[in-house]
Write a structure and sequence with these properties.
The complex is a heterodimer of chains A (69) and B (168). Chain A has helices at residues 34-45, 52-65, and one strand spanning 29-31. With 69 residues, chain A is mainly α. Chain B has 168 residues and is of the alpha+beta class. Chain B contains 5 helices and 7 strands. In chain B, helix 3 (97-115) links the parallel strand 4 (78-88) and strand 5 (120-124). Chain B has helices at 20-35, 71-76, 97-115, 128-136, 153-157; strands at residues 2-5, 40-45, 55-65, 78-88, 120-124, 140-141, 148-152. Classes of the chains: A mainly alpha (69), B alpha+beta (168). The interface between A and B is large, with 53 and 65 residues. Strand 1 of chain A pairs parallel with strand 3 of chain B, so a sheet runs across the interface.
């Protein structure tokens, strides 16, 4: 993974939709800042284990959606 | 409870999650997104014949664009599944419907990732309460935009959501 020089920039901006909006105008891109780019790439390279709450939720979900015999 | 594609017999007008923008989206725009194939909205209902919407989620594919990274990564960006909307009717809250909808989105992400490239599920939390909901499930935060949260597909794959699913 290349080292990234962090440049202070104003907060990045693209959002999936303005938070209080009713629009259907979803953006097709989300532009990340340099710091956020590094956070995402690090996580993709070393994906974390699912936490306990997520594992439990997955177990409940699987039970609810399991095929009935 | 099951999750099915939003259809005309579902009572969109009766749905109230307490957040007007999410109500209006479901009433006025969700079916447009479906018909134009921009986004996909699915609803949680009690059973196949039910018309009452307990909750819904809307997803579409997006691209994460990087800044100041090697050109080959920056230019193309990476594909991600955007969880654009997720809401539960106020009268149905506390039943775990939000969690059920969220896990359904993660399961769909796994299915999509088996057909094409997909690196993560990403969302833009509507408010602090929503943000905390996703953080509890291990979604990762960004620093410059803390309302954008994501979960790598590799993390989701570890949940084994496909093997025992009754609908895949």
């Amino acid at each position: 993974m290349a080292t990234v020089t962090i440049k202070k920039t104003k907060a990045p901006v693209a959002r999936s939709a303005p938070r209080s909006s009713t629009t259907t105008q979803f953006t097709s891109e989300i532009q990340l800042s340099a710091r956020d780019s590094q956070i995402v790439l690090d996580a993709l390279q070393s994906p974390p284990e699912p936490n306990r709450k997520l594992k439990r939720a997955a177990a409940r979900f699987k039970k609810l959606t399991a095929k009935k015999p | 409870m099951i999750i099915v594609p939003l259809a005309s017999h579902h009572q969109r007008q009766a749905f109230d999650c307490g957040e007007e923008s999410l109500n209006i989206f479901l009433r006025q725009f969700a079916r447009q997104g479906l018909s134009k194939r921009i986004s996909r909205t699915s609803v949680a209902v009690e059973d196949e014949t039910a018309t009452q919407i307990l909750g819904y989620h809307t997803t579409l594919v997006t691209t994460l664009k990087f800044e100041q990274l090697p050109a080959k990564i920056s230019k193309a960006g990476i594909p991600a599944l955007l969880l654009a909307r997720l809401a539960v009717d106020v009268h149905q809250q506390g039943r775990g419907i939000g969690e059920f909808l969220l896990l359904d989105v993660l399961r769909r992400a796994v299915i999509i990732s088996e057909q094409t490239g997909l690196y993560a599920v990403v969302l833009d939390a509507l408010n602090e309460r929503a943000r905390k909901f996703y953080l509890r499930y291990g979604f990762e935060e960004l620093v410059d935009d803390p309302f954008h949260l994501f979960l790598p597909i590799e993390t989701i794959l570890k949940l084994g959501l496909i093997e025992s699913s009754g609908r895949f």
